[in-house]
């Protein structure tokens, strides 16, 4: 714990203001005592981990990397985090991310851009960039990110580690600051499939505080060792044929397909929605949901209030001074697609498309056991580039957002392409995803 805290300290761009030193050291001492007394310890006991700064941890600042919540202290602890603490894992740090999860590069933050673990000139990915980089650099053993449209999978891919977006509802969202509630997922980031499995097991389960959760059974270690029941793998033809895909990513992905075939598995090309449709559907719904979710942040109950002549003015100044350009863009966009005259044409159409996307997945999983995809069409951009062109940044999410809309379990593994490979299965089949990842290793 001490060693990791010392490593974290100078790397302020991965972390936010609250390194949890004292708590961590005290917890570690207790584990030491247990070991000294010859008492048995659990799998996660004494294991240092990091937490994206969008999770409530009682008594710590939870800023969402925003000025608005710079001084906000959590009043309670998120269910997923509480379960890890109960299992004896040691929280070291709250981690830098795109403000409120809004972004794909971890540059939309008041704490400075997160630098890629492999090349500091490149972005760390987003929005859970600090979490991915901390794991990649061994500053934490695992970190808990949040994935609404790719925020665990994409930074995991950019830093060549594992990141899982579990089936929506497998892990409680209680205490995760809401971005787009219908796709928000708690997701572990780690250096091995085994670590992902252990952390997933601990965090999963029904929670009365999140009515979208469901009961799931533990994934046993030996359950993911034998992949004999995986007979057919699919991939989306249009992702590979897209003009937007980087030549190397395409080449590596195609050779991954050949490797899978060589292992005796049938690989099928599938039809899917175009990148533009996926990205517009996702952003329409995500912006609508975030406009609604963030409406409570007006300086009354939460947030750095700026007083003005009247209440309306105060709301307005508090929000315009304290929210980032990217977050404001999404709130304005979200309110527009929800407003009278636009909602039928845009928001309802987005919902209808989402149903079609889900239906498409259901049909696919009658034909294949697993779907694979590159994580991103392009390599990680240089720091500064994504900020210049928000639309290009949205389009870079083309391969991750579909699986979010489908609420499917999807894992990034650090092989297959330069930015990794996504492995997806039907809803609640998280075990199959880990199994196939293990098989490909
Ligand atoms: N980049 C996507 C967005 O900005 C995904 C973010 C996330 O999953 N939190 O919406």
From TrEMBL:
Keyword hit for Ligase: yes
Enzyme Commission number(s): 6.3.5.7
Residue ranges constituting the Amidase domain according to the UniProt record: 11-434
PROSITE patterns referenced in this protein's UniProt entry, alphabetically: AMIDASES
Claim: Nucleus is one of the keywords in the record: no
Lineage: superkingdom: Bacteria
Name this protein carries in UniProt: Asp-tRNA(Asn)/Glu-tRNA(Gln) amidotransferase subunit GatA
Source organism (scientific name): Seonamhaeicola algicola
Lineage: Bacteria, Pseudomonadati, Bacteroidota, Flavobacteriia, Flavobacteriales
UniProt gene name: gatA
């Amino acid at each position: 714990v001490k060693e990791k805290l010392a490593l974290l300290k100078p790397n302020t761009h991965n972390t936010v203001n609250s390194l949890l030193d004292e708590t961590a050291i005290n917890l570690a001492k207790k584990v030491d005592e247990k070991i000294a007394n010859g008492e048995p310890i659990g799998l996660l006991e004494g294991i240092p981990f990091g937490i994206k700064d969008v999770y409530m941890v009682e008594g710590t600042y939870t800023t969402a990397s925003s000025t608005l919540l710079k001084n906000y202290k959590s009043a309670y602890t998120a269910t997923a985090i509480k379960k890890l603490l109960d299992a004896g894992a040691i929280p070291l740090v709250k981690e830098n991310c795109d403000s409120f999860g809004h972004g794909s590069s971890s540059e939309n933050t008041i704490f400075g851009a997160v630098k890629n673990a492999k090349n500091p000139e490149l972005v760390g990915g987003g929005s859970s960039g600090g979490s991915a980089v901390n794991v990649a650099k061994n500053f934490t053993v695992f970190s808990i990110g949040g994935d609404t449209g790719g925020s665990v999978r994409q930074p995991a891919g950019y830093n060549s580690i594992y990141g899982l977006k579990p089936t929506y509802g497998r892990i409680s969202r209680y205490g995760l600051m809401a971005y787009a509630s219908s796709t928000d997922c708690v997701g572990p980031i780690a250096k091995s499939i085994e670590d992902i499995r252990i952390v997933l097991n601990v965090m999963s389960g029904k929670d009365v505080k999140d009515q979208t959760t469901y009961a799931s059974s533990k994934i046993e270690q030996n359950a993911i060792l034998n992949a004999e029941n995986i007979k057919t793998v699919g991939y989306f033809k249009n992702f590979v044929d897209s003009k937007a895909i980087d030549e190397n990513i395409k080449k590596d992905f195609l050779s991954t397909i050949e490797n899978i075939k060589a292992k005796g598995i049938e690989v099928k090309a599938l039809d899917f929605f175009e990148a533009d449709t996926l990205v517009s559907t996702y952003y329409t719904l995500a912006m609508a949901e975030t406009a609604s979710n963030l409406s409570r942040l007006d300086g009354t109950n939460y947030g750095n209030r700026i007083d003005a002549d009247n209440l309306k003015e105060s709301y307005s100044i508090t929000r315009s001074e304290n929210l980032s350009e990217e977050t404001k863009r999404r709130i304005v966009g979200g309110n527009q697609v929800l407003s009278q005259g636009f909602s039928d044409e845009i928001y309802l159409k987005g919902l209808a498309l989402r149903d079609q996307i889900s239906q498409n997945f259901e049909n696919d999983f009658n034909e294949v056991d697993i779907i694979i995809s590159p994580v991103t069409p392009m390599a990680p951009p240089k720091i500064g580039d994504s900020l210049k062109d928000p639309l290009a940044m949205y389009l870079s999410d083309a391969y991750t957002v579909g699986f979010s809309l489908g609420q499917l379990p999807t894992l990034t593994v650090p092989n297959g392409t330069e930015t990794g490979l996504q492995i997806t299965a039907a809803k609640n089949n998280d075990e199959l995803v880990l199994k196939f990842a293990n098989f490909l290793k």
